[in-house]
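lol ok so funny story. i was supposed to be doing the assay writeup but got distracted and ended up predicting the structure for this chain instead. priorities right. anyway since i did it might as well share w the group, maybe its usefull for someone
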Amino acid sequence: MPEDEGDESRRKALVSHPSTANIPTSLASGDDGAVFVPFPNNLPDGPAERALVLQDTLISRSTGGAFNPGVYNLLRKEFIADPEAAPLLPRYVRRCRDLNAFWSEAKAMSDTYEGRRAQIRADFQPLLDHLEGAGRAPLDDAITDALAAFNAEGVSVVWRKALERRERDPEGAITAARTLLETVCKHVLDEAGEVYDDGADLPSLYKQAAKLLNLAPSAHTEEVFRQILGGCTSVVAGLGAVRNKISDAHGRGAAGVRPVARHAQLAVNLAGAMATFIVETWQARNQLSG
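and the output, tada:
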């Protein structure tokens, strides 16, 4: 969504012309011609807006504009302390403890001011997407609602954990995706009064739950349903296998495969879709029997 011009103007005013109530109003120039301005007393409260102020402070510093070093120090400290936001910060923000250190990075970015502006904005996009919710996949809300309605202890918690870890911790997200499906299968079996091996692997748990819910491919004669349900079985088996091969649940040699965000995105969405299908099938079964 295009940024409102009024919001951008107000944010830039915070960087270069902040409020000076109850603070010193003198300006000072650095050896490199940089102009320092008073610390603003009206920084925005929202994390996305604060990230934009941090971005614009860096742009101003790298393009000869006025800035306050304290704004950078404060906002950098805030975002580094946030375990979800910190990995999404540009590397030079994590590396540079102050704006003097950043000046060297800025000069190396581009010989032109416009080049530096474009680079900094591109570098902040992952953080802003995260803070504004643009990183959420289309299935996230529907799956979260379905699992919350299940009212099973830990199910919604595990799903949210998987969502949160996709970008910053792909291996952990894959582990959480497998745990999510295990939790759902066990809860269905518990509510149905079924006995199962608590140490059983995911495919075994799903096979038992699928039999209970009439989701086994062999229970259907219509070919299209057999294909779909057979695909579900394959997805569950694949999630169990990928978790064992590349997740953080087992030790791994130096040559082992390391998953990236797209692998975690696929695993989490598949697990979420399957978990929702199991939950809704169980609920439909109970409504018919009730």
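Residues 128 and 134 are 8 Å apart (CA to CA). The chain has a mean pLDDT of 80.
back to the writeup now i swear
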